[in-house]
Design goal:
The chain has a single domain, classed as paralog of FGE (formylglycine-generating enzyme) (Alpha-Beta Complex). The chain contains 5 helices and 15 strands. By secondary structure, the chain is an alpha+beta fold. Mean pLDDT is 87; it is low at 1-36. A hairpin with a 3-residue loop joins strand 8 and strand 9 (239-240). A 4-stranded mixed β-sheet has the order 13-12-10-14. The chain has a 3-stranded antiparallel β-sheet with strand order 1-7-6. A 3-stranded antiparallel β-sheet has the order 2-5-15, with no helix packed on it. It is globular, with a radius of gyration of 19 Å. The structure holds calcium ion (2 copies). One calcium ion binds next to loops. One calcium ion binds at residues 93, 264-265, 267-269, 271, 311.
Length: 356
């Protein structure tokens, strides 16, 4: 294992992201089962039942909502009114079983398996060009002084089939969310299914489950403070009391769905969206926004641009990150997957079909 030196270089804006806990790691419903059902998550194969394009998806009726938050993190301001048209979205994060179907059908090789191209990453240290990915290693104490390199390490050989590096596997985790997925990997999967990746507005609207108004932690904790999503309980990064039952990723669909029947929008793994990231929102109302244009991005030399990721992960704790809310957002460099980052897809079509 190599120290994650590039967190301080390649993950520049992500230094904030890392500091916010976006790097942190947890399974759904199978065979011919029609969809994930609470209480059956452990038995789920990870594959929605049918081969239809809307298999395993829910239709979200269009509407308007207040996107962002005025009360939490600066990058979530300003709250503004957004309207989105109706769309389909996966009920759960894309699973290892689903991603395996894609790879088996296409022979696709993920970026973590290929390694970065030195021609397009001239400033990247040679040892970080070796195929691999970022893995969370739980430290035993706080002697690292809170440095992110105390718990994030670049592990050669880490990739979606080997989440913690060579010798590890996803056997028995077919219904867990796939991780170590760079943006281009997520997009390739979505396009193979004839789908897209959600815009940030679509994702946030869906995550709210029909609720509007100022954002809160009600997606992650009930009124008594009991966790209702897969996050980190205890003192991050040294003590996980595991009150929610999952120290890492959980099978998809193990926690109560939101008002739209969607699972793990908050928690389990962070999720890619298609929007380029910039801190904050405009105050202006918008219809079907797709984020800033690439020309509006400020990208430092030697760094990849970042897109917005949403929802927090099993590594978000009250003392660190705590971004398990629909309005929370973080930047993620497009060529960097991690052990706590996955995705789900959308289908921008009307609702004439019923969810299978
Ligand atoms: Ca947990
Ligand atoms: Ca999630």
């Amino acid at each position: 294992m190599k120290p994650l030196r590039f967190i301080l270089s390649r993950v520049a804006s992500p230094l904030a992201a890392v500091a916010a806990g976006i790097y942190a790691v947890g399974t759904v419903v199978g065979g011919t089962a029609p969809q994930v059902e609470v209480g059956t998550c452990a038995a789920y194969s990870g594959l929605p039942g049918s081969g239809q394009r809307t298999a395993g998806m829910a239709f979200i009726p269009g509407g308007a909502f207040h996107m962002g938050s005025e009360r939490h993190q600066p990058e979530e301001r300003f709250t503004h009114v957004v309207r989105v048209d109706g769309f389909w979205i996966d009920r759960h994060e894309v699973t290892n079983a689903q991603f395996k179907q894609f790879v088996d059908a296409t022979g696709y090789v993920t970026l973590a398996e290929r390694g970065l191209d030195p021609k397009t990453h001239p400033g990247t240290p040679k040892d970080l060009l070796v195929p691999g990915s970022v893995v969370f290693i739980q430290p035993n104490d706080h002697k690292g002084g809170g440095r992110v390199t105390q718990w994030w390490q670049y592990v050669a050989g880490a990739q979606w089939r080997q989440p913690t590096g060579s010798g590890s596997s996803i056997v028995g985790k077919e219904n867990h969310p796939v991780v170590h997925i760079a943006y281009e990997d997520a997009l390739a999967y979505a396009q193979w299914r004839g789908h897209s990746l959600p815009t940030e507005a679509q994702w946030e609207f869906a995550a709210r489950g029909g609720r509007d108004g100022e954002d809160d932690w009600s997606s992650a904790f009930d009124a008594d403070g009991k966790p209702i999503a897969n996050s980190w309980q205890g003192l991050f990064p040294v003590l996980n009391t595991n009150d929610d039952g999952y120290a890492g990723t959980a099978p998809v669909g193990c926690f109560k769905p939101n008002g739209y029947g969607l699972y793990d929008m908050v928690g389990n793994v962070w999720e890619w969206t298609g929007d380029w990231y910039r801190p904050g929102h405009s105050r202006e109302a918008a219809v079907n926004p797709m984020g800033p244009h690439f020309d509006q991005m400020r990208v430092a030399a030697g760094q990849a641009p970042s897109r917005v990721i949403k929802g927090g992960s099993h590594l978000c704790a009250a003392n660190y990150c705590s971004r398990y809310r629909p309005a929370a957002r973080q930047p993620q460099e497009i060529d960097l997957g991690a052990a706590h980052l996955g995705f789900r897809t959308v289908l921008n079509e009307p609702a004439q079909r019923r969810s299978p």
